């Protein structure tokens, strides 16, 4: 059995109610649910939430909300892996043995069914049981700058500043869209998950993590440009 788990707690501080805020005509969470439905791999699409309004919207979009998330994993410091494990344990007890889980973030408005399928198949082809959506940094992180306590610039790595960007190894960051894994992978430590993970590389123009109002505005502008909304 393959399930999708979409974490969607109520207590977002920087963007209140961001999981169900209107994003170009639809609640933000609707994009993740629709991508999961389009994927065609999932036996169940489960939204894990502590909020009745989110639950109602999720059900209207075609997801299942078979339980309300307990308070101990609904706060600001709740780890995504804990939420996934809770949902997987519930599914294992009530729906049957779970083979694979895809955790999809509720505000992953750029995710689609095809990339979810690609992630699953790349994980399986690599012979591992964990995959992470990633995207390249826009610039070499070795050439990062910081602001000193005196308000001046300083190089994080002065030696790297003299190198050409093409001579520096490309690095990636979490695209904040989805993770594929077995229940055993999600039960492992973060270090163990990273060590066994295969990257699902996404282009930068299809990635925007949404944590601030600036992120939200950028995501809307990108979405309009891509899909002529």
Considering the chains and any ligands shown, give keywords for the structure.
229 residues; two-stranded antiparallel ribbon; globular; 6-stranded mixed beta sheet; alpha/beta; single chain; 35% helix; 10 strands
Q: Please, could you describe this protein's structure?
A:
The chain has helices at residues 28-39, 52-60, 80-94, 113-125, 158-161, 183-187, 190-196, 213-227; strands at 2-7, 22-23, 26-27, 44-48, 100-104, 130-136, 145-147, 153-155, 172-181, 197-201. The chain has a 6-stranded mixed β-sheet with strand order 4-1-5-9-6-10, with helices on both faces. The chain is built from 8 helices and 10 strands. By secondary structure, it is an alpha/beta fold. The protein is 35% helix and 21% strand. A hairpin with a 5-residue loop joins strand 7 and strand 8.
Brief overview, please?
The chain is of the alpha/beta class. The chain has eight helices and ten strands. The longest helix has 15 residues, at 80-94.
Mean pLDDT: 96
Major sheet strand order = 4-1-5-9-6-10
Which spans of ≥5 residues are poorly predicted at pLDDT below 50? none
- Structural class computed from helices and strand pairing: alpha/beta
Estimate what percentage of residues fall within beta strands.
Answer: 15-25%
The sequence of SSEs as H and E is: EEEHEHHEHEEEHEHHEH
- End-to-end distance, in Å? 36 Å
Count of helical regions: 8
Percent in helix = 25-40%
Largest sheet: 6 strands, mixed
Coarse shape: globular
Rg result:
19 Å
Count of β-strands: 10
Chart the SSEs and their pairings.
Layout: E1 2-7, E2 22-23, E3 26-27, H1 28-39, E4 44-48, H2 52-60, H3 80-94, E5 100-104, H4 113-125, E6 130-136, E7 145-147, E8 153-155, H5 158-161, E9 172-181, H6 183-187, H7 190-196, E10 197-201, H8 213-227
Parallel strand pairs: 1-4, 1-5, 6-10
Antiparallel strand pairs: 2-3, 5-9, 6-9, 7-8
């Amino acid at each position: 059995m393959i399930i999708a788990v979409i974490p969607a707690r109520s207590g977002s501080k920087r963007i209140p109610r961001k999981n169900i805020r209107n994003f170009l005509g639809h609640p933000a969470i609707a994009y993740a649910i629709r991508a999961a439905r389009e994927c065609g791999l999932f036996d169940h699409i489960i939204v894990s939430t502590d909020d009745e309004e989110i639950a109602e919207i999720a059900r209207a979009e075609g997801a299942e909300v078979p339980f309300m998330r307990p308070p101990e994993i609904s706060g600001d410091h709740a780890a995504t892996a804990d939420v996934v494990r809770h949902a997987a344990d519930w599914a294992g007890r009530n729906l049957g043995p779970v083979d694979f889980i895809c955790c999809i973030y509720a505000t992953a408005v750029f995710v689609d069914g095809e990339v979810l399928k690609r992630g699953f198949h790349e994980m399986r082809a690599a012979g591992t049981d964990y995959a992470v959506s990633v995207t390249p940094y826009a610039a070499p992180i070795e050439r990062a700058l910081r602001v000193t306590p005196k308000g001046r610039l300083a190089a994080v790595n002065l030696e790297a500043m003299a190198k050409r960007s093409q001579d520096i190894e490309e690095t990636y960051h979490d695209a904040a869209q989805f993770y594929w894994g077995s229940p055993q992978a999600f039960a492992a430590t973060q270090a163990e998950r990273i060590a066994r993970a295969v990257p699902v590389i996404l282009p930068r123009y299809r990635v925007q993590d949404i944590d601030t109002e600036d992120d939200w505005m950028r995501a809307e502008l990108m979405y309009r440009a891509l899909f002529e909304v």
